[in-house]
Amino acid sequence: MKTLRGIAASRGIAIGPAFHFRRADLSFERCTVEDPTAEWARFQAALETAREQLADVYAKAEAESGAAQAAIFQAHALMLEDPELLDAVRTAIEEQCINAEAALSDAAETYAQMLETLDDEYLSARAADVRDVAARVLRILLGVAESPTANLTVPSIILARDLTPSDTVLLDKSLVLGFCTAEGGATSHTAILARGLGLPAIVGAGPSVLEIPDGAMLVLDGGDGTLLVGPDEGTVAEYRARQAAATVVLARAREKAHEPAVTRDGHRVEVVANIGNVEGARAALEAGAEGVGLLRTEFLYLERSRLPDEEEQYRAYRAIVDVFGDRPVVLRTLDIGGDKDLPYLDLPHEMNPFLGLRAIRLCLARPELFRPQLRAALRAGAGRNLKLMFPMVATVSEVRAARAVLEECRAELLDEGQPVAEKMEVGIMVEIPAAALMADHLAAEVDFFSIGTNDLSQYTLAADRTNAQVAPLATGFQPAVLRLVRDVIAAAHAQGKWVGLCGELAGEPLAIPILLGLGLDEFSMNPPAIPLAKQIIRALTLEEAQEVAQAALKLDSPDAVQALVRERVPAANVG
Ligand code: PEP
Ligand code: MG
User: pLDDT tens digits, residue range 470-527?
Assistant: First the structure.
Protein backbone atom coordinates (compact mmCIF):
# COMPACT_ATOMS: atom_id res chain seq x y z
CA MET A 1 0.00 0.00 0.00
CA LYS A 2 1.29 3.46 -0.88
CA THR A 3 0.18 6.64 0.87
CA LEU A 4 0.09 10.03 -0.86
CA ARG A 5 -0.69 13.25 0.92
CA GLY A 6 -2.32 16.28 -0.59
CA ILE A 7 -4.51 19.16 0.50
CA ALA A 8 -7.90 18.23 1.94
CA ALA A 9 -10.23 19.94 -0.53
CA SER A 10 -13.65 18.42 0.01
CA ARG A 11 -14.70 16.32 2.99
CA GLY A 12 -15.76 12.69 2.62
CA ILE A 13 -14.35 9.25 1.93
CA ALA A 14 -14.31 7.66 -1.53
CA ILE A 15 -13.32 4.06 -2.19
CA GLY A 16 -12.96 2.74 -5.72
CA PRO A 17 -10.75 2.28 -8.81
CA ALA A 18 -8.54 5.00 -10.30
CA PHE A 19 -9.45 6.65 -13.61
CA HIS A 20 -7.10 9.13 -15.28
CA PHE A 21 -8.61 12.26 -16.78
CA ARG A 22 -6.55 12.94 -19.90
CA ARG A 23 -7.28 15.67 -22.35
CA ALA A 24 -7.56 14.38 -25.90
CA ASP A 25 -4.52 14.57 -28.19
CA LEU A 26 -5.76 16.02 -31.46
CA SER A 27 -2.46 16.03 -33.32
CA PHE A 28 -2.55 14.44 -36.81
CA GLU A 29 -0.37 13.96 -39.85
CA ARG A 30 -0.92 16.22 -42.82
CA CYS A 31 -0.87 14.08 -45.99
CA THR A 32 -2.25 13.82 -49.51
CA VAL A 33 -5.05 11.42 -50.38
CA GLU A 34 -5.45 9.21 -53.43
CA ASP A 35 -9.23 9.37 -53.57
CA PRO A 36 -10.53 12.88 -52.77
CA THR A 37 -14.15 11.80 -53.36
CA ALA A 38 -13.86 9.13 -50.67
CA GLU A 39 -12.12 11.63 -48.38
CA TRP A 40 -14.96 14.14 -48.84
CA ALA A 41 -17.45 11.37 -48.03
CA ARG A 42 -15.44 10.51 -44.88
CA PHE A 43 -15.60 14.17 -43.88
CA GLN A 44 -19.36 14.30 -44.45
CA ALA A 45 -19.88 11.18 -42.35
CA ALA A 46 -17.91 12.85 -39.54
CA LEU A 47 -20.14 15.91 -39.88
CA GLU A 48 -23.23 13.75 -39.53
CA THR A 49 -21.85 12.18 -36.33
CA ALA A 50 -21.01 15.65 -35.00
CA ARG A 51 -24.61 16.78 -35.63
CA GLU A 52 -25.93 13.78 -33.71
CA GLN A 53 -23.51 14.41 -30.83
CA LEU A 54 -24.51 18.06 -30.66
CA ALA A 55 -28.20 17.16 -30.49
CA ASP A 56 -27.43 14.86 -27.52
CA VAL A 57 -25.21 17.42 -25.80
CA TYR A 58 -27.89 20.07 -26.28
CA ALA A 59 -30.52 17.83 -24.69
CA LYS A 60 -28.23 17.04 -21.73
CA ALA A 61 -27.24 20.68 -21.20
CA GLU A 62 -30.85 21.84 -21.47
CA ALA A 63 -31.99 19.30 -18.87
CA GLU A 64 -29.11 20.11 -16.49
CA SER A 65 -28.69 23.86 -16.97
CA GLY A 66 -31.64 25.21 -18.96
CA ALA A 67 -32.18 26.37 -22.53
CA ALA A 68 -30.12 29.56 -22.27
CA GLN A 69 -26.95 27.71 -21.30
CA ALA A 70 -27.61 24.99 -23.88
CA ALA A 71 -28.10 27.42 -26.79
CA ILE A 72 -24.40 27.42 -27.54
CA PHE A 73 -24.67 23.84 -28.83
CA GLN A 74 -27.41 24.86 -31.26
CA ALA A 75 -25.11 27.58 -32.52
CA HIS A 76 -22.39 24.96 -32.98
CA ALA A 77 -24.75 22.77 -35.01
CA LEU A 78 -25.51 25.74 -37.29
CA MET A 79 -21.81 26.27 -37.89
CA LEU A 80 -21.58 22.78 -39.30
CA GLU A 81 -23.90 23.98 -42.08
CA ASP A 82 -21.89 27.12 -42.84
CA PRO A 83 -21.40 27.11 -46.66
CA GLU A 84 -18.21 29.18 -46.52
CA LEU A 85 -16.52 26.77 -44.13
CA LEU A 86 -17.73 23.67 -45.97
CA ASP A 87 -16.68 25.06 -49.38
CA ALA A 88 -13.19 25.77 -48.07
CA VAL A 89 -12.87 22.19 -46.81
CA ARG A 90 -14.23 20.70 -50.04
CA THR A 91 -11.90 22.79 -52.19
CA ALA A 92 -8.87 21.77 -50.14
CA ILE A 93 -9.77 18.08 -50.31
CA GLU A 94 -10.78 17.99 -53.98
CA GLU A 95 -8.29 20.42 -55.48
CA GLN A 96 -5.24 20.05 -53.25
CA CYS A 97 -5.96 16.38 -52.42
CA ILE A 98 -5.14 16.87 -48.74
CA ASN A 99 -6.64 14.78 -45.94
CA ALA A 100 -9.86 15.88 -44.24
CA GLU A 101 -8.13 16.59 -40.90
CA ALA A 102 -5.74 19.08 -42.51
CA ALA A 103 -8.43 20.60 -44.74
CA LEU A 104 -10.75 21.13 -41.80
CA SER A 105 -8.16 22.62 -39.43
CA ASP A 106 -6.87 25.01 -42.14
CA ALA A 107 -10.35 26.16 -43.09
CA ALA A 108 -11.52 26.54 -39.48
CA GLU A 109 -8.39 28.45 -38.46
CA THR A 110 -8.66 30.82 -41.45
CA TYR A 111 -12.33 31.35 -40.68
CA ALA A 112 -11.68 31.91 -36.95
CA GLN A 113 -8.90 34.40 -37.66
CA MET A 114 -11.09 36.28 -40.13
CA LEU A 115 -13.82 36.55 -37.46
CA GLU A 116 -11.30 37.79 -34.91
CA THR A 117 -10.35 40.71 -37.10
CA LEU A 118 -13.95 41.93 -37.46
CA ASP A 119 -14.84 45.08 -35.64
CA ASP A 120 -17.87 43.48 -34.07
CA GLU A 121 -17.54 42.05 -30.58
CA TYR A 122 -20.23 39.43 -31.09
CA LEU A 123 -18.85 38.10 -34.36
CA SER A 124 -15.25 38.14 -33.27
CA ALA A 125 -16.20 36.16 -30.17
CA ARG A 126 -17.55 33.43 -32.48
CA ALA A 127 -13.98 32.49 -33.36
CA ALA A 128 -13.80 30.34 -30.22
CA ASP A 129 -16.98 28.55 -31.32
CA VAL A 130 -15.54 27.83 -34.75
CA ARG A 131 -12.44 26.31 -33.17
CA ASP A 132 -14.53 24.35 -30.70
CA VAL A 133 -16.82 22.88 -33.32
CA ALA A 134 -13.87 22.07 -35.60
CA ALA A 135 -12.22 20.24 -32.67
CA ARG A 136 -15.37 18.13 -32.31
CA VAL A 137 -15.27 17.05 -35.98
CA LEU A 138 -11.52 16.48 -35.73
CA ARG A 139 -12.04 14.18 -32.72
CA ILE A 140 -14.50 12.16 -34.77
CA LEU A 141 -12.15 11.96 -37.76
CA LEU A 142 -9.33 10.82 -35.47
CA GLY A 143 -11.52 8.41 -33.50
CA VAL A 144 -10.76 10.19 -30.20
CA ALA A 145 -13.38 9.90 -27.43
CA GLU A 146 -15.67 12.94 -27.09
CA SER A 147 -15.00 13.54 -23.43
CA PRO A 148 -11.90 12.60 -21.46
CA THR A 149 -14.22 10.56 -19.26
CA ALA A 150 -16.27 9.04 -22.09
CA ASN A 151 -14.71 5.62 -21.36
CA LEU A 152 -15.66 5.84 -17.73
CA THR A 153 -18.12 3.02 -17.17
CA VAL A 154 -17.78 2.12 -13.49
CA PRO A 155 -17.89 4.52 -10.54
CA SER A 156 -14.29 5.68 -10.11
CA ILE A 157 -11.97 8.14 -8.43
CA ILE A 158 -10.74 10.64 -11.02
CA LEU A 159 -7.03 11.44 -11.10
CA ALA A 160 -5.69 14.43 -13.03
CA ARG A 161 -2.83 16.88 -13.18
CA ASP A 162 -5.37 19.61 -12.57
CA LEU A 163 -9.02 20.08 -13.39
CA THR A 164 -10.33 23.39 -14.61
CA PRO A 165 -13.75 24.44 -13.34
CA SER A 166 -15.14 23.54 -16.79
CA ASP A 167 -13.59 20.07 -16.68
CA THR A 168 -15.26 19.56 -13.31
CA VAL A 169 -18.62 20.66 -14.67
CA LEU A 170 -18.33 18.22 -17.59
CA LEU A 171 -17.65 15.17 -15.39
CA ASP A 172 -20.45 12.62 -15.36
CA LYS A 173 -21.24 12.93 -11.66
CA SER A 174 -23.06 9.61 -11.50
CA LEU A 175 -19.76 7.83 -12.20
CA VAL A 176 -17.42 10.01 -10.14
CA LEU A 177 -16.77 8.97 -6.53
CA GLY A 178 -14.26 11.72 -5.88
CA PHE A 179 -11.12 13.22 -7.34
CA CYS A 180 -7.49 13.83 -6.62
CA THR A 181 -5.31 16.26 -8.53
CA ALA A 182 -1.54 16.63 -8.61
CA GLU A 183 -1.78 20.43 -8.57
CA GLY A 184 -4.12 23.09 -7.16
CA GLY A 185 -5.04 24.48 -3.72
CA ALA A 186 -7.96 24.00 -1.30
CA THR A 187 -9.66 27.26 -2.18
CA SER A 188 -9.05 27.07 -5.91
CA HIS A 189 -12.38 27.28 -7.68
CA THR A 190 -12.17 23.64 -8.72
CA ALA A 191 -11.99 22.55 -5.09
CA ILE A 192 -14.93 24.81 -4.30
CA LEU A 193 -16.95 23.20 -7.08
CA ALA A 194 -16.17 19.73 -5.68
CA ARG A 195 -17.49 20.80 -2.30
CA GLY A 196 -20.60 22.19 -3.92
CA LEU A 197 -21.17 18.84 -5.61
CA GLY A 198 -20.51 17.00 -2.34
CA LEU A 199 -17.65 15.04 -3.98
CA PRO A 200 -14.73 14.03 -1.72
CA ALA A 201 -11.58 15.61 -3.16
CA ILE A 202 -7.87 16.10 -2.61
CA VAL A 203 -5.82 18.63 -4.54
CA GLY A 204 -2.10 19.32 -4.78
CA ALA A 205 -1.07 15.73 -4.06
CA GLY A 206 2.04 15.98 -6.27
CA PRO A 207 3.13 14.41 -9.55
CA SER A 208 3.11 10.82 -8.27
CA VAL A 209 -0.68 10.91 -8.65
CA LEU A 210 -0.08 10.73 -12.40
CA GLU A 211 1.86 7.46 -12.07
CA ILE A 212 -0.96 5.53 -10.42
CA PRO A 213 -2.19 2.92 -12.93
CA ASP A 214 -5.77 3.13 -14.24
CA GLY A 215 -7.97 0.73 -12.27
CA ALA A 216 -5.74 0.66 -9.14
CA MET A 217 -7.82 0.40 -5.96
CA LEU A 218 -7.85 3.69 -4.02
CA VAL A 219 -9.11 5.07 -0.74
CA LEU A 220 -9.45 8.85 -0.76
CA ASP A 221 -10.02 10.77 2.45
CA GLY A 222 -11.05 14.29 1.52
CA GLY A 223 -11.18 15.28 5.20
CA ASP A 224 -7.46 14.89 5.84
CA GLY A 225 -6.00 14.80 2.32
CA THR A 226 -4.80 11.17 2.32
CA LEU A 227 -4.86 8.98 -0.78
CA LEU A 228 -4.14 5.27 -0.24
CA VAL A 229 -3.07 3.32 -3.32
CA GLY A 230 -3.67 -0.45 -3.23
CA PRO A 231 -4.93 -0.62 0.39
CA ASP A 232 -5.25 -4.06 2.04
CA GLU A 233 -8.67 -5.46 2.91
CA GLY A 234 -8.42 -4.49 6.57
CA THR A 235 -7.75 -0.84 5.68
CA VAL A 236 -10.62 -0.76 3.20
CA ALA A 237 -12.94 -2.22 5.87
CA GLU A 238 -11.78 0.42 8.37
CA TYR A 239 -12.53 3.25 5.93
CA ARG A 240 -15.87 1.73 5.00
CA ALA A 241 -16.78 1.76 8.70
CA ARG A 242 -15.74 5.44 8.98
CA GLN A 243 -17.70 6.25 5.84
CA ALA A 244 -20.76 4.58 7.37
CA ALA A 245 -20.34 6.41 10.72
CA ALA A 246 -20.05 9.79 8.97
CA THR A 247 -23.14 8.92 6.94
CA VAL A 248 -25.08 8.36 10.21
CA VAL A 249 -23.97 11.74 11.69
CA LEU A 250 -24.89 13.48 8.46
CA ALA A 251 -28.23 11.72 8.20
CA ARG A 252 -29.12 12.94 11.70
CA ALA A 253 -28.08 16.49 10.82
CA ARG A 254 -30.10 16.32 7.61
CA GLU A 255 -33.27 15.47 9.53
CA LYS A 256 -33.10 18.92 11.14
CA ALA A 257 -31.61 20.75 8.17
CA HIS A 258 -34.68 22.91 7.65
CA GLU A 259 -34.83 24.11 11.24
CA PRO A 260 -33.04 27.32 12.19
CA ALA A 261 -29.55 27.42 13.68
CA VAL A 262 -30.10 28.55 17.27
CA THR A 263 -27.56 28.04 20.05
CA ARG A 264 -28.61 26.30 23.28
CA ASP A 265 -29.05 29.73 24.88
CA GLY A 266 -31.24 31.09 22.11
CA HIS A 267 -28.80 33.05 19.86
CA ARG A 268 -29.85 32.67 16.24
CA VAL A 269 -27.54 33.01 13.26
CA GLU A 270 -28.34 32.69 9.58
CA VAL A 271 -27.02 29.71 7.64
CA VAL A 272 -27.13 30.39 3.91
CA ALA A 273 -25.56 29.02 0.76
CA ASN A 274 -22.87 29.78 -1.77
CA ILE A 275 -24.30 28.98 -5.18
CA GLY A 276 -23.46 29.52 -8.83
CA ASN A 277 -26.66 28.83 -10.79
CA VAL A 278 -30.33 27.93 -10.58
CA GLU A 279 -29.67 24.22 -10.03
CA GLY A 280 -27.41 25.19 -7.11
CA ALA A 281 -30.24 27.36 -5.80
CA ARG A 282 -32.64 24.43 -5.74
CA ALA A 283 -30.05 22.14 -4.15
CA ALA A 284 -29.31 24.80 -1.53
CA LEU A 285 -32.97 25.16 -0.59
CA GLU A 286 -33.24 21.40 -0.26
CA ALA A 287 -30.10 21.29 1.90
CA GLY A 288 -31.66 23.74 4.39
CA ALA A 289 -30.29 27.10 3.21
CA GLU A 290 -32.11 30.11 4.64
CA GLY A 291 -31.10 32.15 1.62
CA VAL A 292 -27.98 32.81 -0.43
CA GLY A 293 -24.94 34.56 1.04
CA LEU A 294 -22.93 34.41 -2.17
CA LEU A 295 -24.27 34.07 -5.70
CA ARG A 296 -21.14 33.75 -7.83
CA THR A 297 -22.35 35.27 -11.09
CA GLU A 298 -19.33 34.06 -13.06
CA PHE A 299 -21.37 31.00 -14.14
CA LEU A 300 -23.12 33.16 -16.71
CA TYR A 301 -19.86 34.35 -18.21
CA LEU A 302 -17.78 31.17 -18.23
CA GLU A 303 -18.31 28.27 -20.64
CA ARG A 304 -19.38 30.44 -23.51
CA SER A 305 -17.96 32.54 -26.26
CA ARG A 306 -19.41 36.01 -25.70
CA LEU A 307 -20.73 38.22 -22.93
CA PRO A 308 -24.25 37.54 -21.69
CA ASP A 309 -26.50 40.54 -22.39
CA GLU A 310 -28.64 42.33 -19.82
CA GLU A 311 -31.80 40.43 -20.68
CA GLU A 312 -30.15 37.04 -20.35
CA GLN A 313 -28.67 38.03 -17.01
CA TYR A 314 -31.96 39.41 -15.79
CA ARG A 315 -33.73 36.14 -16.59
CA ALA A 316 -31.01 34.04 -14.94
CA TYR A 317 -30.94 36.14 -11.74
CA ARG A 318 -34.69 36.35 -11.54
CA ALA A 319 -34.99 32.56 -11.85
CA ILE A 320 -32.57 32.15 -8.93
CA VAL A 321 -34.24 34.78 -6.74
CA ASP A 322 -37.61 33.19 -7.45
CA VAL A 323 -36.39 29.88 -5.99
CA PHE A 324 -35.90 31.66 -2.66
CA GLY A 325 -39.14 33.67 -2.48
CA ASP A 326 -38.79 36.19 0.37
CA ARG A 327 -35.46 34.88 1.59
CA PRO A 328 -32.35 36.96 1.02
CA VAL A 329 -30.09 36.39 -1.98
CA VAL A 330 -26.75 38.21 -2.11
CA LEU A 331 -25.65 38.66 -5.71
CA ARG A 332 -21.94 39.25 -6.15
CA THR A 333 -20.97 41.27 -9.19
CA LEU A 334 -18.55 39.77 -11.66
CA ASP A 335 -15.32 38.44 -10.13
CA ILE A 336 -13.29 37.58 -13.22
CA GLY A 337 -9.52 37.46 -13.15
CA GLY A 338 -7.26 35.48 -10.82
CA ASP A 339 -7.86 31.81 -11.65
CA LYS A 340 -11.06 32.62 -13.57
CA ASP A 341 -10.29 33.72 -17.10
CA LEU A 342 -12.72 34.73 -19.86
CA PRO A 343 -10.87 34.04 -23.12
CA TYR A 344 -13.35 36.05 -25.20
CA LEU A 345 -12.63 39.25 -23.25
CA ASP A 346 -9.07 39.14 -24.49
CA LEU A 347 -7.67 40.56 -21.26
CA PRO A 348 -3.97 41.36 -21.41
CA HIS A 349 -1.69 38.71 -19.92
CA GLU A 350 -0.67 39.62 -16.37
CA MET A 351 2.39 38.47 -14.45
CA ASN A 352 0.37 38.20 -11.23
CA PRO A 353 -3.28 37.76 -12.12
CA PHE A 354 -4.38 37.48 -8.47
CA LEU A 355 -2.90 40.95 -7.95
CA GLY A 356 -4.14 42.27 -11.23
CA LEU A 357 -7.14 43.82 -12.91
CA ARG A 358 -9.61 41.52 -11.19
CA ALA A 359 -13.26 41.74 -10.08
CA ILE A 360 -14.41 45.27 -9.13
CA ARG A 361 -11.23 46.75 -10.59
CA LEU A 362 -12.04 45.25 -13.98
CA CYS A 363 -15.71 46.22 -13.73
CA LEU A 364 -14.89 49.82 -12.93
CA ALA A 365 -12.42 49.91 -15.83
CA ARG A 366 -14.89 48.31 -18.26
CA PRO A 367 -18.35 49.86 -17.82
CA GLU A 368 -19.66 47.83 -20.78
CA LEU A 369 -19.17 44.78 -18.53
CA PHE A 370 -20.45 46.35 -15.34
CA ARG A 371 -23.53 48.29 -16.36
CA PRO A 372 -25.56 45.50 -17.96
CA GLN A 373 -24.97 43.38 -14.86
CA LEU A 374 -26.05 46.15 -12.48
CA ARG A 375 -29.13 46.89 -14.59
CA ALA A 376 -30.02 43.20 -14.67
CA ALA A 377 -29.59 42.91 -10.89
CA LEU A 378 -31.71 46.00 -10.20
CA ARG A 379 -34.47 44.61 -12.40
CA ALA A 380 -34.23 41.11 -10.90
CA GLY A 381 -34.51 42.60 -7.41
CA ALA A 382 -37.87 44.31 -8.08
CA GLY A 383 -40.24 43.06 -5.38
CA ARG A 384 -37.68 40.53 -4.11
CA ASN A 385 -35.12 40.31 -1.32
CA LEU A 386 -32.03 40.72 -3.51
CA LYS A 387 -28.87 42.31 -2.14
CA LEU A 388 -25.82 43.35 -4.12
CA MET A 389 -22.17 42.83 -3.19
CA PHE A 390 -18.94 44.07 -4.79
CA PRO A 391 -15.93 41.72 -4.73
CA MET A 392 -12.26 42.54 -4.15
CA VAL A 393 -12.76 45.98 -2.72
CA ALA A 394 -9.52 47.48 -1.44
CA THR A 395 -10.41 51.14 -0.92
CA VAL A 396 -13.25 53.42 0.05
CA SER A 397 -13.08 55.20 -3.32
CA GLU A 398 -13.83 51.94 -5.17
CA VAL A 399 -17.04 51.50 -3.16
CA ARG A 400 -18.08 55.06 -3.88
CA ALA A 401 -17.35 54.65 -7.58
CA ALA A 402 -19.25 51.37 -7.81
CA ARG A 403 -22.23 52.79 -5.93
CA ALA A 404 -22.26 55.80 -8.25
CA VAL A 405 -22.52 53.55 -11.32
CA LEU A 406 -25.28 51.61 -9.56
CA GLU A 407 -27.25 54.78 -8.93
CA GLU A 408 -26.80 55.89 -12.56
CA CYS A 409 -28.17 52.55 -13.70
CA ARG A 410 -31.11 52.83 -11.31
CA ALA A 411 -31.94 56.32 -12.61
CA GLU A 412 -31.72 55.10 -16.21
CA LEU A 413 -34.09 52.22 -15.54
CA LEU A 414 -36.57 54.46 -13.76
CA ASP A 415 -36.48 56.84 -16.74
CA GLU A 416 -37.23 53.92 -18.99
CA GLY A 417 -40.17 53.02 -16.77
CA GLN A 418 -38.75 49.63 -15.81
CA PRO A 419 -39.59 48.07 -12.44
CA VAL A 420 -36.51 48.08 -10.20
CA ALA A 421 -35.64 47.07 -6.63
CA GLU A 422 -36.82 49.95 -4.49
CA LYS A 423 -34.34 49.45 -1.73
CA MET A 424 -31.50 47.08 -2.35
CA GLU A 425 -28.94 46.53 0.39
CA VAL A 426 -25.40 47.00 -0.91
CA GLY A 427 -22.40 45.33 0.66
CA ILE A 428 -18.82 44.47 -0.08
CA MET A 429 -16.64 41.43 0.25
CA VAL A 430 -13.86 41.99 2.73
CA GLU A 431 -11.17 39.80 1.24
CA ILE A 432 -8.18 42.11 0.90
CA PRO A 433 -6.21 42.94 4.05
CA ALA A 434 -6.44 46.66 3.24
CA ALA A 435 -10.23 46.44 3.40
CA ALA A 436 -10.10 44.52 6.67
CA LEU A 437 -7.84 47.19 8.16
CA MET A 438 -10.12 49.99 6.90
CA ALA A 439 -13.30 48.21 7.98
CA ASP A 440 -14.43 51.11 10.18
CA HIS A 441 -14.40 53.51 7.22
CA LEU A 442 -15.87 50.98 4.82
CA ALA A 443 -18.68 50.08 7.22
CA ALA A 444 -19.94 53.65 6.91
CA GLU A 445 -20.31 53.21 3.13
CA VAL A 446 -22.30 49.95 3.00
CA ASP A 447 -25.15 47.98 4.52
CA PHE A 448 -23.17 44.80 5.21
CA PHE A 449 -19.88 42.97 4.87
CA SER A 450 -19.22 39.46 3.72
CA ILE A 451 -15.76 38.24 4.64
CA GLY A 452 -14.06 36.26 1.87
CA THR A 453 -11.54 34.19 3.77
CA ASN A 454 -10.37 32.33 0.65
CA ASP A 455 -8.79 35.47 -0.73
CA LEU A 456 -8.22 37.13 2.63
CA SER A 457 -6.03 34.15 3.60
CA GLN A 458 -4.07 34.14 0.35
CA TYR A 459 -3.40 37.87 0.50
CA THR A 460 -2.64 37.95 4.23
CA LEU A 461 -0.20 35.04 3.98
CA ALA A 462 1.07 36.07 0.52
CA ALA A 463 0.40 32.49 -0.61
CA ASP A 464 -1.32 31.73 -3.94
CA ARG A 465 -4.43 29.67 -3.19
CA THR A 466 -3.96 27.60 -6.36
CA ASN A 467 -0.28 26.78 -5.88
CA ALA A 468 0.01 23.42 -4.15
CA GLN A 469 3.45 24.27 -2.79
CA VAL A 470 2.25 27.24 -0.75
CA ALA A 471 -1.53 26.83 -0.61
CA PRO A 472 -1.46 25.05 2.79
CA LEU A 473 -0.24 28.35 4.25
CA ALA A 474 -3.34 30.12 3.00
CA THR A 475 -5.85 28.72 5.46
CA GLY A 476 -8.43 30.70 7.38
CA PHE A 477 -7.32 28.88 10.54
CA GLN A 478 -4.21 31.05 10.56
CA PRO A 479 -4.40 33.21 13.69
CA ALA A 480 -3.46 36.22 11.54
CA VAL A 481 -6.61 35.72 9.46
CA LEU A 482 -8.77 35.08 12.54
CA ARG A 483 -7.59 38.34 14.05
CA LEU A 484 -8.64 40.22 10.92
CA VAL A 485 -12.03 38.44 11.00
CA ARG A 486 -12.47 39.48 14.65
CA ASP A 487 -11.65 43.12 13.88
CA VAL A 488 -13.89 43.29 10.80
CA ILE A 489 -16.89 41.94 12.72
CA ALA A 490 -16.26 44.37 15.58
CA ALA A 491 -15.91 47.35 13.22
CA ALA A 492 -19.16 46.56 11.42
CA HIS A 493 -21.11 45.87 14.62
CA ALA A 494 -19.93 49.18 16.07
CA GLN A 495 -21.89 50.83 13.25
CA GLY A 496 -24.90 48.54 13.40
CA LYS A 497 -24.01 46.67 10.19
CA TRP A 498 -24.32 42.90 9.85
CA VAL A 499 -21.47 40.60 8.82
CA GLY A 500 -21.46 37.37 6.88
CA LEU A 501 -18.60 35.11 5.89
CA CYS A 502 -18.69 33.31 2.56
CA GLY A 503 -15.18 31.87 2.31
CA GLU A 504 -14.78 28.11 2.67
CA LEU A 505 -14.02 28.65 6.35
CA ALA A 506 -17.72 29.23 7.11
CA GLY A 507 -18.53 25.59 6.35
CA GLU A 508 -15.51 24.09 8.16
CA PRO A 509 -16.80 22.24 11.22
CA LEU A 510 -13.76 23.23 13.29
CA ALA A 511 -14.07 26.93 12.39
CA ILE A 512 -17.79 27.28 13.13
CA PRO A 513 -17.49 27.54 16.94
CA ILE A 514 -14.82 30.25 16.58
CA LEU A 515 -16.80 32.30 14.05
CA LEU A 516 -19.92 31.99 16.19
CA GLY A 517 -17.96 33.19 19.20
CA LEU A 518 -16.60 36.17 17.23
CA GLY A 519 -20.17 37.30 16.62
CA LEU A 520 -20.62 36.38 12.96
CA ASP A 521 -24.24 36.97 11.88
CA GLU A 522 -24.41 34.96 8.68
CA PHE A 523 -22.57 31.75 7.69
CA SER A 524 -22.55 31.17 3.93
CA MET A 525 -21.27 27.84 2.62
CA ASN A 526 -21.50 25.14 0.00
CA PRO A 527 -24.96 23.57 0.37
CA PRO A 528 -23.88 20.05 1.41
CA ALA A 529 -22.15 21.56 4.47
CA ILE A 530 -25.32 23.25 5.80
CA PRO A 531 -26.95 20.49 7.87
CA LEU A 532 -23.79 19.75 9.86
CA ALA A 533 -23.02 23.45 10.37
CA LYS A 534 -26.46 24.00 11.88
CA GLN A 535 -26.02 20.97 14.11
CA ILE A 536 -22.69 22.29 15.46
CA ILE A 537 -24.23 25.69 16.23
CA ARG A 538 -27.12 24.02 18.05
CA ALA A 539 -24.69 22.05 20.23
CA LEU A 540 -23.14 25.23 21.71
CA THR A 541 -24.11 28.19 23.86
CA LEU A 542 -22.95 31.61 22.67
CA GLU A 543 -20.82 31.89 25.79
CA GLU A 544 -19.07 28.57 25.11
CA ALA A 545 -18.36 29.70 21.57
CA GLN A 546 -16.98 33.02 22.82
CA GLU A 547 -14.62 31.19 25.16
CA VAL A 548 -13.39 28.96 22.34
CA ALA A 549 -12.87 32.02 20.11
CA GLN A 550 -10.95 33.91 22.79
CA ALA A 551 -8.71 30.90 23.45
CA ALA A 552 -8.15 30.33 19.71
CA LEU A 553 -7.05 33.93 19.18
CA LYS A 554 -4.28 33.49 21.70
CA LEU A 555 -2.72 30.58 19.78
CA ASP A 556 0.11 30.83 17.29
CA SER A 557 -0.62 28.29 14.55
CA PRO A 558 -3.49 26.83 12.49
CA ASP A 559 -2.77 23.35 13.88
CA ALA A 560 -3.05 24.58 17.45
CA VAL A 561 -6.33 26.33 16.63
CA GLN A 562 -7.84 23.19 15.11
CA ALA A 563 -6.59 20.97 17.96
CA LEU A 564 -8.20 23.31 20.47
CA VAL A 565 -11.61 23.18 18.80
CA ARG A 566 -11.34 19.42 18.35
CA GLU A 567 -10.80 19.05 22.06
CA ARG A 568 -13.33 21.61 23.30
CA VAL A 569 -16.21 21.01 20.88
CA PRO A 570 -16.82 17.29 20.26
CA ALA A 571 -19.79 18.11 17.96
CA ALA A 572 -17.38 19.85 15.56
CA ASN A 573 -15.00 16.89 15.46
CA VAL A 574 -16.45 15.03 12.49
CA GLY A 575 -14.94 13.38 9.40
C1 PEP B 1 -13.42 34.35 -1.01
O2 PEP B 1 -12.45 34.88 -1.55
O3 PEP B 1 -13.43 33.94 0.17
C4 PEP B 1 -14.66 34.14 -1.78
C5 PEP B 1 -15.75 33.66 -1.21
O6 PEP B 1 -14.64 34.46 -3.10
P7 PEP B 1 -14.02 33.52 -4.25
O8 PEP B 1 -13.67 32.19 -3.59
O9 PEP B 1 -15.07 33.38 -5.29
O10 PEP B 1 -12.83 34.28 -4.67
MG1 MG C 1 -12.70 35.97 -3.37
Answer: 878 999 999 999 999 999 999 999 999 999 999 999 999 999 999 999 999 999 999 9
Q: What is the structure's pLDDT at 129?
A: 76
Ramachandran angles phi, psi of 308, nearest 5°: -75, 140
Roughly what angle, to the nearest 10 degrees, separates helices 36-65 and 67-79?
A: 170
Nearest CA to ligand 1 atom 4: 452
Would the CB of 387 count as within 6 Å of ligand 1?
Answer: no
Which amino acid type is present at position 291? G
> For the chain, how big is the Rg over CA atoms in Å?
25
Q: Within 10 Å of residue 370's Cβ, how many Cβ atoms?
A: 21
Q: Beta partners for 176?
A: 156
Ligand 1 site, residue 562, Cβ cutoff 6 A? no
Q: Which atom of ligand 1 is nearest to the CA of 454?
A: 3
Give the integer Cα–Cα distance in Å for 127 and 519.
51
- Residue 158: beta bridge partners? 19, 179
431 lines ligand 1 (CB under 6 A): yes
User: Hey, what amino acid is at 76?
Assistant: H
pTM value is 0.77
Rounded to whole angstroms, how far apart are CA atoms 513 and 282? 27
Say how far apart CA 161 and CA 286 lie, in whole Å: 33
Q: Per residue in 160-195, is it b (16+ CB within 10 Å) or e — as a string?
A: bebbbbebbbebeeeebbbbbbbbbbbbbbbbbbbb
Q: Which tens digits make up the pLDDT trace of 545-574?
A: 999 999 999 999 999 999 999 999 999 987
- CB contact set of 407 (below 8 Å; sequence gap of 6+): none
Residue 351 DSSP code? S
- What confidence score (pLDDT) does residue 470 get? 86
pLDDT of residue 295: 97
Model pLDDT, residue 125: 62
Q: In sequence order, which residues have a C-beta less than 8 Å from that of residue 347 and are 6 or more positions away?
A: 336, 337, 341, 357, 362
Q: Within 13 Å of residue 156, how many CA atoms lie on the same side as its CB?
A: 20
Distance CA 135, CA 59 (A): 20
